[in-house]
Amino acid sequence: MEQKSVRNSENINISEEQISFDNYVETYKSEVDESIGFIGQDTDFFIELKAELLLKLAESNFSELKNIKVLDIGSGIGLVDKHIKHKIINLTGVDIEEGVVEKAKINNPEVNYLCYDGTKLPFGNESFDLCFAVNVVHHVPPEMWDNFMLEMKRILKKGGVAAVFEHNPINPLTRLAVKRCEFDRDAVLLSHTTLKRLFKKADLKVFDDEYIIFFPFKAGLFRSAEKFLKWLPLGAQHFVAARKGS
Fold this sequence. Notes:
By secondary structure, this protein is an alpha/beta fold. It is built from 8 helices and 9 strands. The radius of gyration is 17 Å and the shape is globular. Residues about 1-15 have low confidence and may be disordered.
């Protein structure tokens, strides 16, 4: 199988081969663990940190988490949902791969998972209070990025919040990890500037944007230090949060 090089949003070459995550349903976590093994942490470390940030984002924007409807776009096998479902009761996940969706249902039977075509989310307008995508957009063909953001906006209620987490192409260790990962061979990494621009183009009002995961350590000292580094474009990943106008 031909290997595609990692690209970034400033030098786009559309992939001739789209990745099927159904091929990695049973090996997804081990594939990622292998690709990041040199860092000294496994997949769970990074997933848990982003899940914590998602819960903080939800808690700071909604008074009662049990009353909000939340959508995980590109939910995969439900790794993020595992860490937020205890607080977010009304949680739905969608993905484009049937095998992946079935595995997510096994992993998180409390969550409602659906398959969709990757173009139009299978929900009516203004259906959710919060939607998020964790390391998903770099697998979306660049010509579909605008549509992805507009769909997030469409399904959000007025005043609703959208959040996207992505790999940081500026971080050399992140680029190495992506290069080593078999199912990231179609990745088009988005810069922080590109991600914010996509939100603004969709008329979603950015209210938070940060670089995250500077230290691969769980100790509270390192986690606290990151609060002062969120402006520094060297974190392993980054995220943008925005609100739909009233």
